[in-house]
Design a protein that fits this description.
This protein has 418 residues and is mainly alpha-helical. The chain has helices at 2-17, 20-28, 35-49, 56-62, 66-87, 96-128, 134-166, 172-189, 191-196, 200-203, 212-220, 222-240, 242-252, 257-285, 287-298, 301-307, 316-322, 326-340, 347-375, 389-411; strands at residues 379-382, 385-388. It has a two-stranded antiparallel sheet.
Length: 418
């Protein structure tokens, strides 16, 4: 379990340096047409190709056991990420559109490999960690990951600010590329603890590949339907806000990347503090109560974005404070999933849940980006006031995510305790 913590911490440092926020800002340097759809595709495409992780149960066992499969997938993902800055640099390809396409393609490949490795890793960890303490383990691992991401984002913000001050004539994308390359190096380093973890699969016939019946089992399991239904609701409306949120904070509020990274540092620092306590509460009180309280806070985030204006951009800090509560879902959702999944045949359940969540999030993010391009010049009247499209979108998502608490309590059930 300590090695799993180290793996999570190192991966989080790399992820914090090569974050999706950084890649979005890099994409905006291309100044490509239909930037709203471009942002939506950049954020959504990894989730859409993530549907291919449904193949992971068939690959695990036929190609390699869970340990070897996870190590190979995470190593290849780091290699692809390392190639991203040089390949997709502005001006390297004939047009801005070609650069954006290359960026999206490499970002997708990096995430797909990482997603495939995650299916194997979660199944592996499910056997390593006894169910009665699984919530506490997930909480502590979340703390390590939060600490790693916070430290990396703080370092990234300092690095970008220092480069801008020391080299004011240098294009901003160079600093973004340096941060991404450092992130790739740390993600590759995160494989080392995995290599030292015990290979449970080797003691159990190498982790046999899933049969057709096992692959179909999640889709016939009514207990999982409720979790998938709630996950679809949450992923869809969360994805719908992604393109407006990124466009609004950069182009309207003009919040710089270092400031955004500092907000993310505050977010992950709060999650670092809350993680173990939330994990313990999930073990003792159940996941539903923890997740409902967390979602009620999360849902208020879009409201703070709706209140923010170029004169008062600081309102968005309230959203990032609310989003600390994502720690409850980051722990509760996998805890529920592993509890609902059958022992020794859990990879199809993990792959199905991750694929459905990614598909819903990806489709809604693309749709949100397309709506942004179509309506961003429009204004709307609400309660006697005038709202821009982004503000109207934030209010809509606020309402729907708040209703998600009722969806959670209606659809999701706790698994029987081991």
């Amino acid at each position: 379990m300590r090695l799993a913590y180290w793996n999570g911490a190192l991966w989080a440092v790399g992820n914090g340096l090569a974050s999706s926020q950084l890649v979005v800002y890099l994409a905006m340097e291309f100044d490509a047409p239909r930037i709203g759809l471009g942002i939506g595709l950049l954020l959504a495409a990894p989730h859409l190709v993530g549907v291919l992780r449904l193949a992971a149960p068939a690959l695990i066992g036929r190609l390699a056991g869970r340990k070897r499969f996870a190590i190979a997938a995470y190593t290849l993902s780091g290699v692809v990420l390392a190639a991203l800055p040089a390949t997709a640099a502005p001006g390297r390809l004939p047009s801005a559109g070609a650069s954006l396409t290359a960026l999206v393609a490499l970002w997708c490949a990096y995430h797909l490999l990482e997603y495939l490795g995650t299916v194997a890793l979660w199944s592996w960890l499910a056997d390593l960690v006894p169910p009665p303490i699984r919530g506490r383990f997930l909480g502590r691992r979340e703390r390590w990951m939060a600490c790693g991401q916070a430290a990396a984002m703080l370092a990234g913000a300092w690095l970008l600010t220092a480069r801008q001050r020391s080299r004011p004539d240098e294009p901003a994308w160079i600093g973004y590329a340096v941060a991404a390359a450092l992130g790739a190096a740390l993600i590759l380093a995160a494989v080392i603890p995995l290599a030292r973890m015990p290979d449970i699969a080797a003691r159990q016939a190498r982790g046999a590949a899933a049969t057709l019946g096992q692959w179909l089992a999640p889709w016939r399991d009514r207990r999982l339907w409720g979790l998938l239904g709630f996950q679809c609701w949450l992923s869809f409306f969360n994805g719908l806000a992604q393109a407006p949120q990124n466009y609004y904070q950069d182009k309207v509020l003009q919040v710089s990347l270092p400031v955004m990274l500092c907000l993310r540092v505050a977010l992950r620092s709060g999650q670092w503090a809350a993680g173990p306590g939330v994990g313990k509460a999930a073990d003792r009180a159940g996941n539903r109560a923890v997740m409902a309280a967390s979602l009620l806070l999360i849902a208020q985030g879009p409201l703070f974005y709706a209140l923010a204006t170029p004169q008062q951009p600081w309102w968005i800090a309230g959203a990032w404070a609310c989003w600390i509560a994502w720690v409850g879902l980051n722990i509760g959702l996998p805890h529920l999933l592993l509890g609902l999944s059958p022992r020794r045949a859990d990879t199809p359940y993990i792959a199905a849940w991750l694929a459905v969540a990614g598909l819903c999030h990806g489709l809604s993010t693309v749709w949100g980006g397309s709506l942004l391009d179509h309506y961003r010049q429009r204004t709307f009247v609400w309660l006697g006031g005038t709202l821009g499209y982004c503000q109207a979108a934030f209010l809509f998502v606020w309402i729907m995510e708040s209703l998600g608490v009722l969806v959670l309590l209606w659809l999701v059930r706790e698994p029987e305790r081991a």
